[in-house]
Amino acid sequence: MTTHKYKDIEYSLKKSKRKTSSIYIERDGSISVLVPSELQQDEIENILERKRFRIYSHLAEWEDANTSRVYREFVSGEGFFYLGRTYKLEIVEKQESALKLKNGQFLLRRKDLSNAKELFINFYKEKGRKKINERVDYWKKLLNVEPNDIKIMELQNRWGSCSEKRNVNFHWKTIMAPLTILDYIVAHELTHLIHPNHSEAFWNELDKVMPDYLHRKSWLNIHGAGMDL
Ligand SMILES: [Zn+2]
User: Where is the YgjP-like metallopeptidase domain (predicted)?
Assistant: First the structure.
């Protein structure tokens, strides 16, 4: 990967065997350009010129999501993510369970307010376990891999991890993302069962089952920081 500058656009350039070009935003807000190896510099610059507006609107989205990050408050009207949608929280006086998602709203029992964060984490873990297992079943067949164990847990700065023992872990926050993005995270981790690194071979393998993975990866880099409690 090498750093280049075209007018006001600074970017990292990566050449690959792919036939198409992609521009995407990294987690730190930098721009990466992936192009077929035979593409000339002026052709690359043409692409950048054509995509200028897209690049800048993506960068603006990234800045919105990453510099004005607001922590959620457990008050009525606050929005919480679940599978890519936002649901408003409503504090209710009486309810049989402490927290539930019903009729497009999160309903939290007032006497459990002091445990709100923990209750949300448990909600995400529980829903995540079911959904992620379902998506693992789908993607493992396409990738022809067999994970040993799947866990939903708190992971530091990562969406997922994969161990030498073929145990695959996912952060409970992943269930906040739209399904297409959750699928990217699942397929990414399962591909590590074939290549335990981020080599070109790894990305090529993922590309075979998910040709639009770069768009999904870019979405996660832009919006990932906002997916938190
Ligand atoms: Zn990875």
Answer: 20-222
